[in-house]
Design brief:
By secondary structure, the chain is α/β, with parallel strands linked by helices. The protein has an eight-stranded parallel β-barrel with strand order 1-2-3-4-5-6-7-8. The protein starts with 11 loop residues before the first strand and ends with a helix. The N terminus is likely disordered.
Length: 259
């Protein structure tokens, strides 16, 4: 696996839903990555694809298991993550172990797209894989479980201290719904003391594409080290990744963060 030893967590600009290594190569050829950020290459997997089956709902977003290791590049400016969701919470440790074993030397870690996974499972996994990065996604269901209360959300996140590297606020779940800027800022204002205490990164997602990035300018002004991720907003009518749109999104985001 790739060398993951870094003293500071760099913020990233992410794209999730890659299916082919050629997609990643084309983007890296066209985009100049800034020194103070990484490009996050996100590959989707779930318990069904882990078992060798196709994802029937999003067949254009979930590659077959034996293709994953080919997608991640040998590039120190890239953060390569598997975005994993499962309902089989009792075997999460084993599932992460299996994905780690088959995903190649350039895998850096996981984003867990599930509501409040057991911190003890992450503790055990990190004990065996101390360099692996883990991003904790806070989606709609996770917010419902804390009553949409930012302080309760912060308290729950604190239970993961030492076991996660980033926290991602994402109420869209890959469906391209544009995030509520005022609500997102309300959460960030409350969460930031906890994030700083845990020494982790914070990110946001929700309907981002070249045409909606301007909406997060107020957040960037207040939280310049925020990471961002895009998925549903970068796909065509057949749910395939649109490379020209993905490249435009990255270039626009980089310019915004460099202002």
């Amino acid at each position: 696996m790739a060398d993951r030893e870094e003293k500071m967590e760099k913020p990233y600009i992410g794209i999730t839903g890659f299916m082919k290594p050629e997609e990643v190569s084309e983007i890296l050829l066209k985009v100049k990555i800034p020194e103070n950020r990484k490009i996050m290459v996100g590959v989707l997997a779930n318990s069904k694809t882990l078992g060798g089956l196709k994802n029937e709902k999003f067949p254009g977003r979930y590659p077959s298991l034996n293709q994953i290791y080919k997608i991640f590049p040998d590039n120190p400016q890239v953060l390569s993550l598997i975005h994993f969701n499962t309902k089989e919470r009792d075997i999460l440790y084993d599932q992460l172990g299996k994905l780690t074993a088959i995903s190649g030397q350039y895998l850096h870690g996981f984003q867990l797209n599930m509501a409040w996974p057991d911190p003890y499972v992450l503790k055990m996994y990190r004990a065996k894989n101390p360099g692996v990065k883990i991003i904790l996604q806070i989606g709609n269901h996770a917010l419902e479980m804390v009553g949409h209360n930012p302080q309760e959300c912060a308290n729950r996140i604190m239970k993961y201290k030492g076991f996660v590297n980033h926290v991602l606020l994402d109420s869209s779940g890959g469906y391209g719904r544009v995030l509520d800027i005022l609500e997102t800022k309300r959460y960030l204002d409350v969460l930031m003391p906890t994030i700083k205490n845990m020494d982790v990164g914070i990110g946001i997602a929700g309907g981002l594409n070249p045409d909606t990035l301007h909406l997060i300018e107020p957040i960037i002004r207040n939280f310049p080290n925020v990471s961002i991720d895009a998925e549903g907003g970068l796909r065509d009518s057949n749910d395939h990744l649109k490379l020209d749109k993905a490249i435009a999104y990255l270039q626009t985001a980089i310019e915004m963060f460099e202002k």
